[in-house]
Automatic annotation (TrEMBL):
<keyword id="KW-0732">Signal</keyword>
<feature type="binding site">
    <location>
        <position position="84"/>
    </location>
    <ligand>
        <name>Mn(2+)</name>
    </ligand>
</feature>
<keyword id="KW-0479">Metal-binding</keyword>
<keyword id="KW-0052">Apoplast</keyword>
<dbReference type="GO" id="GO:0030145">
    <property type="term" value="F:manganese ion binding"/>
</dbReference>
<feature type="domain" description="Cupin type-1">
    <location>
        <begin position="33"/>
        <end position="184"/>
    </location>
</feature>
<comment type="similarity">
    <text>Belongs to the germin family.</text>
</comment>
<keyword id="KW-0964">Secreted</keyword>
<dbReference type="Pfam" id="PF00190">
    <property type="entry name" value="Cupin_1"/>
</dbReference>
<dbReference type="InterPro" id="IPR014710">
    <property type="entry name" value="RmlC-like_jellyroll"/>
</dbReference>
<keyword id="KW-0464">Manganese</keyword>
<feature type="signal peptide">
    <location>
        <begin position="1"/>
        <end position="24"/>
    </location>
</feature>
<dbReference type="GO" id="GO:0048046">
    <property type="term" value="C:apoplast"/>
</dbReference>
<protein>
    <recommendedName>
        <fullName>Germin-like protein</fullName>
    </recommendedName>
</protein>
<dbReference type="InterPro" id="IPR001929">
    <property type="entry name" value="Germin"/>
</dbReference>
<feature type="binding site">
    <location>
        <position position="130"/>
    </location>
    <ligand>
        <name>Mn(2+)</name>
    </ligand>
</feature>
<feature type="binding site">
    <location>
        <position position="91"/>
    </location>
    <ligand>
        <name>oxalate</name>
    </ligand>
</feature>
Length: 195
C-alpha cells in the first residue's frame, strides 16, 4: 500500500514538473548588455545645429522587449531640433546642460512651451508635434526617455516636402496656401535629419 502511494506521488510530481503551469513566468528580459557612451560631445556642425543620438532598440539591442528607449540631444548655440513626432511613444526630456526653449502643439492646436534650464524636465505626449531650440549662448545637452523601445521619429518638413516620391504639388499648394513656385522650391531642398 505504501509503495503504491509512493508511485502515485512520483507520477504526480513528474506530471507537475512537465506541465506548462510550471513554466508560466515570462522568460528573463535581460537578453544583452551594452554600454551607451553619453560623455563625448556629438558633432553639431550641421545646418540644424543639433545632433540627436537615438538609443532605440535598433541601436541598443539590450532594450529589446523592455518597452523603453532614450536619446541624447546635443545643441550648438542657436541649434534647433526641428518639429517632429514620435508615433509610438511619449517623451520625457531632462536638460543636462544649457537652456532650451521646448514646446509641443496639442490636438486642440494649442501651443505649450517652456524655457528649460539645467535639471528641468518637460513632457511631449505621444504623437504630438514638438521641438526644442537652444536659446542659450553655450552648447546644450539634454536626455530624452521614451515609453517604447521603438518610438519612431517623423520630421514634419522632411515628410511633407522631402517625401520620395514627392507629395502632389497641387495638394501641397492648396494645403499650405502656397504658390507652385514656393512648393517646388521647398521640395527641391535637401531635408537633412539630425539623428
Ligand atoms: C553626430 O555626431 C556624430 C559624432 O560626432 C557624427 O558622427 C554624426 O555625423 C553627427 N550627426 C549629424 C547628423 O550631424
Amino acid at each position: 500500500m505504501a509503495a503504491h502511494h509512493l508511485i502515485l506521488l512520483l507520477l504526480a510530481l513528474i506530471a507537475l514538473s512537465s506541465s506548462p503551469a510550471a513554466f508560466a513566468a515570462d522568460p528573463n528580459q535581460l537578453q544583452d548588455f551594452c554600454v551607451a557612451d553619453t560623455n563625448s560631445n556629438r558633432n553639431t556642425a550641421n545646418r540644424l545645429g543639433s545632433n540627436v543620438t537615438l538609443v532605440f532598440a535598433q541601436q541598443f539591442p539590450g532594450l529589446n522587449t523592455l518597452g523603453v528607449a532614450g536619446a541624447r540631444l546635443d545643441f550648438a548655440a542657436g541649434g534647433v531640433n526641428p518639429p517632429h513626432t514620435h508615433p509610438r511613444a511619449t517623451e520625457l526630456l531632462v536638460v543636462i546642460k544649457g537652456t532650451l526653449y521646448a514646446g509641443f502643439v496639442a490636438s486642440t492646436n494649442k501651443l505649450y512651451t517652456k524655457v528649460l534650464y539645467e535639471g528641468d524636465a518637460f513632457i511631449f505626449p505621444q504623437g504630438l508635434i514638438h521641438f526644442q531650440f537652444n536659446i542659450g549662448k553655450t552648447d546644450a545637452v539634454a536626455w530624452a526617455s521614451f515609453g517604447s523601445q521603438n518610438p519612431g521619429r517623423v520630421d514634419i518638413a522632411n515628410a511633407v516636402f522631402g517625401a520620395k516620391p514627392p507629395v502632389s504639388l497641387y495638394l501641397l499648394e492648396k494645403s499650405f496656401q502656397l504658390d507652385e513656385k514656393t512648393v517646388e522650391l521647398l521640395q527641391a531642398k535637401l531635408w537633412i535629419t539630425n539623428s
